[in-house]
What we know:
The chain is an alpha/beta fold. It folds into four domains: 9-130, Rossmann fold (3-Layer(aba) Sandwich), CATH 3.40.50.2300; 159-314, Rossmann fold (3-Layer(aba) Sandwich); 315-403, Orthogonal Bundle (Helicase, Ruva Protein, domain 3); 415-465, Homeodomain-like (Arc Repressor Mutant, subunit A, Orthogonal Bundle), CATH 1.10.10. It has helices spanning 16-28, 39-45, 64-74, 89-97, 110-136, 151-163, 180-190, 208-216, 233-236, 252-264, 290-295, 301-307, 324-339, 348-356, 362-376, 389-396, 398-413, 418-432, 437-444, 448-458, and strands at residues 9-12, 34-36, 52-56, 79-84, 102-105, 170-173, 198-202, 217-218, 230-231, 241-245, 266-268, 275-277, 281-286, 310-313, 345-346, 382-383. The strands form five sheets. Strands 2-1-3-4-5 form a five-stranded parallel sheet, with helices on both faces. Strands 7-10-13-6-14 form a five-stranded parallel sheet, with helices on both faces. It is globular and about 85 Å long. It starts with 8 loop residues before the first strand and ends in a 7-residue tail after the last helix. The model is unreliable at 1-5, 132-146 and 400-412 (pLDDT under 50).
Amino acid sequence: MRKKRISNLLIADDDAVIRKLVHYNFEKAGLYCDVFEDGHDLLKVASEETHVCVLDIEMPRLGGLECLKKLKKTYPHIEVVILTNVNQAAEALEAIRSGAFDYLTKPFDPNTLIRAVRKAIQLSKKQRENDDLRSTLVDSPVVSNALGESDAMARIKNLLSRIAPSDNVALFTGPSGTGKTLLARELHSKSKRANGPFISVSCPSLPGELLESEMFGHEKGSFSGATQRRLGRAELAHSGTLFLDEIGEMSLPLQAKLLTFLQEKTFYRLGGEKQIQSDIRIVAATNQDLEKSVREGKFREDLYFRLNVLPIHVPTLSERKADIRLLLDHFLSRIATSEGQSTPIVLEETYVALENYSWPGNIRELENAVIQAYTLRLDTDTLQSSDFTMLRKESANPESSQTSTTVTKANYLSGLPLAEIEKLAITQTLEMCHNNKSETARILGIAEKSIYNKMKKHGIVIPKA
């Protein structure tokens, strides 16, 4: 007997022609789906396995909006794409505010729907991973890969709590990979707008005209390919937060329109004549030096002053090394949980080696390095420094890293508690002595019995041969 495929994509539309069209095109694109006549029948089948639902706004017994709200209440990880008619802009807006991923107006291009569904599936999978992680780290202070326990992060958390009640613009600055987006979400979750939407716009991802349409929307016929009216992110973010990621990449003409919006709280859709108001809070982020961009004429000075009201600088990972152990454990636990395996033991020398590494790619590099090391590790029970590619490359080229390593270790020891220094001394001496505990004790000038007690005290584990 042929095993039935499990569908993680559900479609509900009372129009039989639409159902057949969507089903045919999805199957052709390799997206297996189940179709239903209304939301009532779809809800009977929806489960934890479901990733995305496509819902018509008007259906008998249970329409798209009501079905969306029921789905989000029971299965918050399910993403929903709404199908509307031309005259249902208000319903589309309500759907987005109720948690819909996107909406399309009939008649729609099947390829556009397929692209939207693929993006929604990716988001649903990512949310599942995050939910799994939170359930395994209930008692952990790390709730995202942007947070930690270092003094630098403690100051940022304190700052977020103080500025969260404000509706003024907040600007996150710092290099790529430091967690600015996640901190922006954290700010939103602490604000009085937490129940409203958090809508993000990636400024470098689209050329000028398309980015303007993405932000402010467009009217039908306003440019080539604008076959129907489209609501912009500024309109969809009403009562919530609009996050402008990498705002330093925004074109000068669009900067002028954004400045007008910040000053007047109103905007026009592209090609439109109706002035639209939206009650939102602007939060922006950039990895660029905006003051330098202003001097070079690449960024408007007046916009910079409008954005730089509540600045939050996010430090590099090398500036918050006290977070590396926590972040490493965080990523490792998440990966092991997703693989259904036990979490390997991280050797002390691995922690030390990672703390001494410069991390030019910041937290993003650490996350990727942990994924690679976990997947390719030689010993299933432990995670060693040799499992990390960049550490192997560094040790293979000692001439280029000798000076920086010496300085880094010296700086690392400065200000450390004595217990940490003792732990580091034992770990490095064990490594030098090829894990010979008697020789290690002799070099450190302590009794052999003491080395066993101190290893137990500091949780130092020697990997199995």
